[in-house]
Amino acid sequence: MTDFTLHPQLLADCHRLGRLSATHLLLHRNAILPWLILVPGTDLDNLLDLPIAQRDAVLADCTRVSDYLTTVLCCPKVNVAWIGNLVPQLHVHVVGRRPTDPCWPKPVWGHLSAAREYTPAEIDAIRTGLASD
Question: pTM score, two decimals?
Answer without folding.
Answer: 0.94
